Amino acid sequence: MAGRIKPITTAAVIFFLVSAVAPLFVSSWATLFALILAKGIVVLGIVLLLQAGQVSFGHAMFFAIGAYTSAFWGKYIGGGDILLYLVLGGISSTVFGLIVGLFVVRYREIFFGMLNLAFSMVLWSLLEKMFPYTNGADGIRVARPGLLGFVFTPETFQYVILYVSLLIAAAAFYGVQRYLESPLGHMLRAIKSNETRLEYLGMSARRVLLIGYVISAFLGGIGGTLVAIIQQIATPEFGFWTKSGEFVFIAILGGGAHAFGAFAGAAMFEWVRFYAAAHLADSWQLILGVVLIVIILYAPNGLIGLRQRYRQSGKGGR
Protein backbone atom coordinates (compact mmCIF):
# COMPACT_ATOMS: atom_id res chain seq x y z
CA MET A 1 0.00 0.00 0.00
CA ALA A 2 2.73 2.42 0.98
CA GLY A 3 4.56 1.63 -2.25
CA ARG A 4 1.53 2.68 -4.31
CA ILE A 5 0.83 5.85 -2.39
CA LYS A 6 4.37 7.22 -2.38
CA PRO A 7 4.65 7.92 -6.16
CA ILE A 8 1.29 9.68 -6.12
CA THR A 9 2.36 11.79 -3.16
CA THR A 10 5.52 12.69 -5.07
CA ALA A 11 3.38 13.67 -8.05
CA ALA A 12 1.30 15.87 -5.73
CA VAL A 13 4.40 17.65 -4.43
CA ILE A 14 5.59 18.23 -8.01
CA PHE A 15 2.15 19.58 -8.94
CA PHE A 16 2.14 22.07 -6.07
CA LEU A 17 5.69 23.18 -6.91
CA VAL A 18 4.74 23.71 -10.56
CA SER A 19 1.67 25.68 -9.43
CA ALA A 20 3.95 27.94 -7.42
CA VAL A 21 6.67 28.45 -10.04
CA ALA A 22 5.09 28.24 -13.52
CA PRO A 23 2.93 31.41 -13.19
CA LEU A 24 6.08 33.42 -12.45
CA PHE A 25 7.13 32.82 -16.07
CA VAL A 26 3.67 33.07 -17.69
CA SER A 27 1.57 35.63 -15.83
CA SER A 28 -1.67 34.53 -17.53
CA TRP A 29 -1.34 31.18 -15.78
CA ALA A 30 -1.67 32.70 -12.30
CA THR A 31 -5.46 32.89 -12.46
CA LEU A 32 -5.69 29.51 -14.20
CA PHE A 33 -3.68 27.73 -11.51
CA ALA A 34 -5.60 29.55 -8.78
CA LEU A 35 -8.88 28.24 -10.23
CA ILE A 36 -7.44 24.72 -10.50
CA LEU A 37 -6.39 24.79 -6.84
CA ALA A 38 -9.71 26.28 -5.65
CA LYS A 39 -11.80 23.74 -7.54
CA GLY A 40 -9.49 20.96 -6.42
CA ILE A 41 -10.33 21.88 -2.82
CA VAL A 42 -14.05 21.53 -3.57
CA VAL A 43 -13.54 18.19 -5.32
CA LEU A 44 -11.64 16.89 -2.29
CA GLY A 45 -15.04 16.91 -0.58
CA ILE A 46 -16.52 14.81 -3.39
CA VAL A 47 -13.60 12.39 -3.07
CA LEU A 48 -14.36 12.06 0.64
CA LEU A 49 -17.96 11.07 -0.03
CA LEU A 50 -16.92 8.65 -2.77
CA GLN A 51 -15.04 6.66 -0.14
CA ALA A 52 -18.42 5.83 1.37
CA GLY A 53 -19.86 5.02 -2.05
CA GLN A 54 -22.02 8.16 -2.04
CA VAL A 55 -22.20 10.73 -4.83
CA SER A 56 -23.57 14.21 -4.17
CA PHE A 57 -25.32 15.78 -7.16
CA GLY A 58 -25.88 18.97 -5.19
CA HIS A 59 -22.49 19.82 -3.78
CA ALA A 60 -22.53 23.16 -5.58
CA MET A 61 -24.80 24.49 -2.82
CA PHE A 62 -21.82 24.68 -0.45
CA PHE A 63 -19.71 26.18 -3.21
CA ALA A 64 -22.37 28.87 -3.67
CA ILE A 65 -22.74 29.47 0.06
CA GLY A 66 -19.04 30.18 0.41
CA ALA A 67 -19.10 32.51 -2.60
CA TYR A 68 -22.20 34.42 -1.53
CA THR A 69 -20.97 34.81 2.03
CA SER A 70 -18.07 36.88 0.69
CA ALA A 71 -20.38 38.73 -1.70
CA PHE A 72 -22.92 39.61 1.00
CA TRP A 73 -20.21 40.81 3.36
CA GLY A 74 -18.77 43.12 0.74
CA LYS A 75 -22.19 44.40 -0.39
CA TYR A 76 -23.86 45.01 2.95
CA ILE A 77 -20.96 45.60 5.33
CA GLY A 78 -18.19 46.73 3.01
CA GLY A 79 -14.47 46.15 2.96
CA GLY A 80 -13.05 42.77 3.68
CA ASP A 81 -9.96 40.65 3.89
CA ILE A 82 -9.17 37.38 2.14
CA LEU A 83 -8.71 35.58 5.46
CA LEU A 84 -11.96 37.01 6.83
CA TYR A 85 -13.85 35.85 3.74
CA LEU A 86 -12.35 32.38 4.05
CA VAL A 87 -13.27 32.12 7.73
CA LEU A 88 -16.84 33.31 7.11
CA GLY A 89 -17.24 31.11 4.03
CA GLY A 90 -15.93 28.07 5.90
CA ILE A 91 -18.19 28.65 8.90
CA SER A 92 -21.36 29.28 6.89
CA SER A 93 -20.86 26.23 4.66
CA THR A 94 -20.05 24.05 7.67
CA VAL A 95 -23.20 25.11 9.53
CA PHE A 96 -25.32 24.60 6.43
CA GLY A 97 -23.60 21.25 5.80
CA LEU A 98 -24.46 20.10 9.32
CA ILE A 99 -28.13 21.08 8.91
CA VAL A 100 -28.49 19.43 5.50
CA GLY A 101 -26.33 16.49 6.54
CA LEU A 102 -28.69 15.54 9.38
CA PHE A 103 -31.27 14.77 6.68
CA VAL A 104 -29.25 13.32 3.83
CA VAL A 105 -27.05 10.87 5.79
CA ARG A 106 -30.14 8.78 6.44
CA TYR A 107 -30.19 7.80 2.78
CA ARG A 108 -27.82 5.99 0.46
CA GLU A 109 -26.89 5.84 -3.22
CA ILE A 110 -29.36 7.48 -5.63
CA PHE A 111 -31.57 8.80 -2.82
CA PHE A 112 -28.54 10.45 -1.19
CA GLY A 113 -27.53 12.03 -4.49
CA MET A 114 -30.98 13.27 -5.45
CA LEU A 115 -31.77 14.69 -2.02
CA ASN A 116 -28.56 16.72 -2.22
CA LEU A 117 -29.65 17.86 -5.67
CA ALA A 118 -33.03 18.95 -4.31
CA PHE A 119 -31.46 21.08 -1.55
CA SER A 120 -29.07 22.60 -4.09
CA MET A 121 -31.86 23.55 -6.48
CA VAL A 122 -33.86 25.15 -3.66
CA LEU A 123 -30.83 27.32 -2.86
CA TRP A 124 -30.34 28.15 -6.55
CA SER A 125 -33.99 29.16 -6.85
CA LEU A 126 -33.72 31.45 -3.82
CA LEU A 127 -30.61 33.10 -5.23
CA GLU A 128 -32.42 33.64 -8.54
CA LYS A 129 -35.72 34.91 -7.12
CA MET A 130 -34.58 37.12 -4.21
CA PHE A 131 -33.49 39.86 -6.59
CA PRO A 132 -33.47 42.76 -4.06
CA TYR A 133 -30.83 40.93 -2.03
CA THR A 134 -28.95 38.81 -4.59
CA ASN A 135 -29.32 40.78 -7.88
CA GLY A 136 -30.81 37.63 -9.38
CA ALA A 137 -29.01 36.07 -12.33
CA ASP A 138 -26.64 39.06 -12.52
CA GLY A 139 -25.06 38.03 -9.25
CA ILE A 140 -23.11 40.16 -6.81
CA ARG A 141 -19.73 41.65 -7.56
CA VAL A 142 -17.01 40.72 -5.07
CA ALA A 143 -14.66 43.66 -4.66
CA ARG A 144 -10.98 42.79 -4.61
CA PRO A 145 -10.14 42.27 -0.91
CA GLY A 146 -6.88 43.00 0.82
CA LEU A 147 -4.75 40.68 2.92
CA LEU A 148 -3.76 41.48 6.50
CA GLY A 149 -4.36 45.17 5.88
CA PHE A 150 -2.42 45.35 2.60
CA VAL A 151 -4.08 46.45 -0.64
CA PHE A 152 -2.77 45.17 -3.97
CA THR A 153 -2.88 46.17 -7.61
CA PRO A 154 -4.67 43.75 -9.99
CA GLU A 155 -1.32 42.50 -11.33
CA THR A 156 -0.01 41.75 -7.85
CA PHE A 157 -3.31 40.44 -6.53
CA GLN A 158 -3.43 37.55 -9.00
CA TYR A 159 -0.26 36.20 -7.40
CA VAL A 160 -1.47 36.89 -3.86
CA ILE A 161 -4.66 34.88 -4.37
CA LEU A 162 -2.66 32.18 -6.19
CA TYR A 163 -0.33 31.60 -3.26
CA VAL A 164 -3.14 31.83 -0.72
CA SER A 165 -5.01 29.17 -2.74
CA LEU A 166 -1.83 27.10 -2.97
CA LEU A 167 -1.25 27.10 0.80
CA ILE A 168 -4.86 26.17 1.51
CA ALA A 169 -4.89 23.49 -1.20
CA ALA A 170 -1.68 21.89 0.10
CA ALA A 171 -3.03 21.90 3.67
CA ALA A 172 -6.39 20.50 2.54
CA PHE A 173 -4.68 17.80 0.47
CA TYR A 174 -2.53 16.73 3.42
CA GLY A 175 -5.44 16.85 5.88
CA VAL A 176 -7.83 14.86 3.68
CA GLN A 177 -5.23 12.20 2.87
CA ARG A 178 -4.42 11.79 6.56
CA TYR A 179 -8.14 11.58 7.27
CA LEU A 180 -8.57 8.83 4.65
CA GLU A 181 -5.71 6.88 6.21
CA SER A 182 -7.08 7.32 9.76
CA PRO A 183 -9.48 4.91 11.53
CA LEU A 184 -12.33 7.32 10.79
CA GLY A 185 -11.42 7.20 7.11
CA HIS A 186 -11.45 3.41 7.14
CA MET A 187 -14.87 3.49 8.81
CA LEU A 188 -16.05 5.79 6.02
CA ARG A 189 -14.95 3.18 3.47
CA ALA A 190 -16.71 0.50 5.50
CA ILE A 191 -20.03 2.20 4.74
CA LYS A 192 -19.47 1.28 1.11
CA SER A 193 -18.18 -2.24 1.66
CA ASN A 194 -20.24 -3.49 4.61
CA GLU A 195 -22.29 -0.95 6.55
CA THR A 196 -24.03 -3.64 8.61
CA ARG A 197 -20.73 -4.94 9.95
CA LEU A 198 -19.77 -1.40 10.93
CA GLU A 199 -22.97 -1.14 12.96
CA TYR A 200 -22.27 -4.49 14.60
CA LEU A 201 -18.93 -3.12 15.77
CA GLY A 202 -20.81 -0.43 17.66
CA MET A 203 -20.09 2.42 15.22
CA SER A 204 -22.88 4.64 13.94
CA ALA A 205 -22.70 4.70 10.15
CA ARG A 206 -24.81 7.86 10.07
CA ARG A 207 -22.44 9.64 12.43
CA VAL A 208 -19.38 8.57 10.45
CA LEU A 209 -20.97 9.74 7.19
CA LEU A 210 -22.15 12.97 8.81
CA ILE A 211 -18.61 13.83 9.89
CA GLY A 212 -17.36 13.22 6.37
CA TYR A 213 -20.26 15.19 4.93
CA VAL A 214 -19.62 18.23 7.12
CA ILE A 215 -15.92 18.21 6.23
CA SER A 216 -16.93 17.95 2.60
CA ALA A 217 -19.25 20.94 2.97
CA PHE A 218 -16.48 22.96 4.63
CA LEU A 219 -14.13 22.24 1.72
CA GLY A 220 -16.86 23.23 -0.72
CA GLY A 221 -17.37 26.56 1.05
CA ILE A 222 -13.65 27.33 1.11
CA GLY A 223 -13.34 26.54 -2.59
CA GLY A 224 -16.39 28.66 -3.41
CA THR A 225 -15.00 31.60 -1.45
CA LEU A 226 -11.70 31.40 -3.33
CA VAL A 227 -13.40 31.21 -6.74
CA ALA A 228 -15.62 34.20 -5.90
CA ILE A 229 -12.53 36.20 -4.94
CA ILE A 230 -10.62 35.06 -8.04
CA GLN A 231 -13.47 35.82 -10.46
CA GLN A 232 -14.69 38.78 -8.36
CA ILE A 233 -18.33 37.75 -8.67
CA ALA A 234 -20.85 35.32 -7.19
CA THR A 235 -23.83 34.25 -9.32
CA PRO A 236 -26.69 31.74 -8.85
CA GLU A 237 -24.94 29.55 -11.42
CA PHE A 238 -22.52 28.64 -8.63
CA GLY A 239 -25.34 26.63 -7.04
CA PHE A 240 -26.87 25.16 -10.20
CA TRP A 241 -26.94 21.41 -10.82
CA THR A 242 -24.52 21.68 -13.74
CA LYS A 243 -21.87 23.03 -11.38
CA SER A 244 -22.39 20.03 -9.10
CA GLY A 245 -22.05 17.82 -12.17
CA GLU A 246 -18.79 19.56 -13.01
CA PHE A 247 -17.35 18.66 -9.61
CA VAL A 248 -18.43 15.04 -9.92
CA PHE A 249 -16.97 15.00 -13.45
CA ILE A 250 -13.62 16.23 -12.10
CA ALA A 251 -13.65 13.66 -9.28
CA ILE A 252 -14.25 10.81 -11.74
CA LEU A 253 -11.65 12.23 -14.10
CA GLY A 254 -8.96 12.39 -11.42
CA GLY A 255 -9.94 9.28 -9.49
CA GLY A 256 -11.09 8.87 -5.91
CA ALA A 257 -8.44 6.43 -4.65
CA HIS A 258 -6.18 9.22 -3.43
CA ALA A 259 -6.71 12.84 -2.41
CA PHE A 260 -4.47 13.99 -5.26
CA GLY A 261 -7.10 12.77 -7.70
CA ALA A 262 -9.09 15.94 -6.95
CA PHE A 263 -6.26 18.17 -8.17
CA ALA A 264 -5.24 15.92 -11.07
CA GLY A 265 -8.82 16.00 -12.34
CA ALA A 266 -9.18 19.75 -11.78
CA ALA A 267 -5.92 20.41 -13.66
CA MET A 268 -6.98 18.28 -16.62
CA PHE A 269 -10.47 19.81 -16.69
CA GLU A 270 -9.34 23.44 -16.53
CA TRP A 271 -6.45 23.04 -18.96
CA VAL A 272 -8.61 21.31 -21.56
CA ARG A 273 -11.36 23.90 -21.13
CA PHE A 274 -8.88 26.79 -21.22
CA TYR A 275 -7.20 25.78 -24.46
CA ALA A 276 -10.20 24.16 -26.12
CA ALA A 277 -12.37 27.21 -25.46
CA ALA A 278 -9.62 29.43 -26.92
CA HIS A 279 -9.49 27.49 -30.19
CA LEU A 280 -12.92 25.82 -30.35
CA ALA A 281 -15.26 28.15 -28.51
CA ASP A 282 -18.39 26.12 -29.25
CA SER A 283 -16.91 22.64 -28.91
CA TRP A 284 -14.89 22.53 -25.69
CA GLN A 285 -17.68 20.55 -23.94
CA LEU A 286 -17.42 17.94 -26.69
CA ILE A 287 -13.68 17.62 -26.12
CA LEU A 288 -14.18 17.23 -22.36
CA GLY A 289 -16.84 14.59 -23.01
CA VAL A 290 -14.47 12.61 -25.22
CA VAL A 291 -11.75 12.85 -22.56
CA LEU A 292 -14.14 11.50 -19.92
CA ILE A 293 -15.24 8.61 -22.18
CA VAL A 294 -11.61 7.64 -22.75
CA ILE A 295 -10.90 7.77 -19.02
CA ILE A 296 -13.94 5.62 -18.20
CA LEU A 297 -13.04 3.03 -20.85
CA TYR A 298 -9.31 2.79 -20.26
CA ALA A 299 -8.88 4.06 -16.70
CA PRO A 300 -12.07 3.44 -14.66
CA ASN A 301 -10.23 4.62 -11.53
CA GLY A 302 -9.31 7.96 -13.11
CA LEU A 303 -5.95 9.52 -13.83
CA ILE A 304 -4.60 8.24 -10.52
CA GLY A 305 -5.70 4.72 -11.41
CA LEU A 306 -4.08 5.09 -14.83
CA ARG A 307 -0.78 5.90 -13.15
CA GLN A 308 -1.02 2.85 -10.89
CA ARG A 309 -2.05 0.64 -13.80
CA TYR A 310 0.97 1.81 -15.80
CA ARG A 311 3.35 1.04 -12.92
CA GLN A 312 1.86 -2.43 -12.42
CA SER A 313 2.10 -3.26 -16.14
CA GLY A 314 5.70 -2.07 -16.09
CA LYS A 315 6.52 -4.40 -13.24
CA GLY A 316 4.76 -7.24 -15.05
CA GLY A 317 6.82 -6.60 -18.14
CA ARG A 318 10.01 -6.86 -16.16
Characterise the protein shown here.
The chain has 318 residues and is mainly alpha-helical. Helix content is 79%, strand content 1%. Helix 11 runs antiparallel to helix 12. It is globular.
Strand content: under 5%
Distance from N terminus to C terminus (CA atoms, Å) equals: 20 Å
Order of helices and strands: HHHHHHEHHHEHHHH
Largest sheet: 2 strands, antiparallel
Please tell me how large the radius of gyration is: 19 Å
Mean pLDDT: 85
Roughly how much helix do the residues carry, as a percent range?
Answer: over 70%
Low-confidence stretches: 1-5
Secondary-structure class: mainly alpha
- How many helical elements? 13
How do the strands line up in the largest sheet?
1-2
General form: globular
* Total number of strands: 2
